Amino acid sequence: MKNTFGNNISLTLFGESHGEYIGAVLDGLAPGIVIDDGFIKSQLSLRRPAGKIGTARHEADEYRIVSGAFNGKTTGTPLTILIPNTAQHSKDYAATRAYPRPGHADYTANVKYHGYEDYRGGGHFSGRVTAALVAAGAIVLSALREKGIVIGTHIASCAGISDRGFANTAEEITALNQKEFAVLDDEKGAEMRAAIEAAAAEGDSVGGVLQTAILGVPAGVGEPWFDTVEGVLSHALFSIPAVKGVQFGDAFNMVNGRGSDYNDSFYISDKEIKTRSNHNGGVNGGITNGMPILFSCAVKPTPSIFKAQNTVDMFNMTDAVLELKGRHDPAIIHRARVVVDSVAALAIADLLAIRYGIDYLMN
Ligand SMILES: Cc1cc2nc3c(=O)[nH]c(=O)nc-3n(C[C@H](O)[C@H](O)[C@H](O)COP(=O)(O)O)c2cc1C
Fold it and tell me: Partner of 213 at 20 to 30 A CA spacing, among 88, 165, 206, 232?
C-alpha cells in the first residue's frame, strides 16, 4: 500500500469521498516557507466544479493546517492539512454497491481491499481527494515561485477541439493561472465548454489533453537512471485519477520524423546555453537542460455516465445493467489542470531537494 510520494519532500494523501475528512501530510518541507492562504484558496477554487460543466457536488473546501506551520510559515516538521467533507449523498451509492462502474475503480478496489473499502462516492479513488493534493501543492507552488520557477497548464484539447500551443510561455502562464477554464484561445474554450455541456445533456462525458510548461528550473536537475525528470514527473502525474497517458515534449510526434527534424540544436544567448527548439521538453538523459520542461497528460472521459451500461453483480456473479444516479463531472480535464500543476510542483521540488538540499526552498 503506498499513499506516499517523494523521496526528500514527501506527500501522504488520506481520506475518502464520503468520509469525515480528506487530507495531506507534507514532510521534508524547508522551514520558513510562507503559507499563502489567499493562494491556497484560489487554487482550491480553480479545482472546484462550476456551472453545467462540473458535478453538482459543491464543497466549500474549508481547509485547516493542523501541524507544521507557526506564525504563517512552515516549521520544517510534518505539515498536515485537513479538509472536511460536507456535501456527501451516500445513499446514491448503496443501491449500486454490487454493480461496479465500468472504467472506475469499484471492481479493482473491491478485489484489492477484500470488500472492506469505503465504496461511497468512489471512496479513496474519488477525484474529491485531489482537493487535499491541490492545497498541499499550493504551498509548494508558492515556494517554487519565490525561486523563479513557475508552472502552468492549458487544455490543449477537449472533445476533439484543440487550443493553440504555447507561444510566449511566461506571460501565458500568468494569464492561465487566473483562468477558471484554462485555454490560450478563449474562442476554442467556448467551443470546448459547449461540447462538455452537450455530452452532459446526453448523460455522457468527454476527455482531452492537458499541456504543461515548467519555467525556471536550472540545468542539471534529475537523477538517472531511475529518478529521471521524466520518471519522477510521470510517477506523480499517473497518480491523478483519470490520467491515462503522459508524453514529454513532442514524444509521440517525434517517432514520425527524423533526427534532423527533432534534435534541439544548441546556441549561446547571454553566456547561457539554450536550444532553438524544444522537442525534447527540456530534458536530455533524464536531466533538465534549462529550457522549459514541457509535458502533456491524456485525461480520459469521466467513467461515471448516466447511460445504461453493461456490468456485473459482483456478489451474485451474474451479468447486470447499471443505471447510475448521483453527481458527476461530465469532464474532468478542466478541473484536473490545477491538480497537474500541484503534483508537478511536488515532483520538481523533490528533485531540487535532492540536488540542492531541502533548505533550497527556504524563503
Ligand atoms: C478532479 C477530478 C474529478 C473527478 N470526478 C469524477 C467524477 O465526477 N466521476 C467519476 O466517475 N470519476 C471522476 N474522476 C475520475 C475517477 O476518480 C477515476 O477515473 C477513477 O478513480 C479510476 O481511475 P483511472 O481512471 O485512473 O483508472 C475525477 C478525477 C479528477 C482528477
Answer: 206
